[in-house]
Design brief:
There is one protein chain. This protein is mainly α. It has a domain at 10-58. It has three helices and no strands. The chain has helices at 10-21, 28-56, 66-73. The longest helix has 29 residues, at 28-56. The chain is elongated, with a radius of gyration of 21 Å. The two termini are 39 Å apart.
Length: 74
């Protein structure tokens, strides 16, 4: 695991310390990692939604069946 040093205003550091002390997270690092994971997940979901919309708008609908999946996998 790598280390990243971040400068924060005192008010943000106090907020993080309060979140940690209230028992939500063991450390400030754990809290920050959870925030980054949440952003990563939202980015993945936004990308997937865009791809789904692109697929829906791409032309004639295709009926998806077991045979269709097998053909796609081959």
């Amino acid at each position: 695991m790598s280390t990243l040093n971040v400068s924060l205003p005192d008010s943000m550091r106090a907020f993080i310390d309060r979140i940690v002390s209230e028992g939500g997270y063991s450390t400030a690092s754990e809290y920050i990692r959870e925030l980054v994971r949440g952003d990563q997940q939202r980015a993945v979901e936004a990308r997937l939604e865009g791809l789904l919309l692109e697929g829906l708008e791409s032309g004639e609908p295709v009926e998806i069946s077991e045979a269709w999946w097998q053909k796609k996998k081959a």
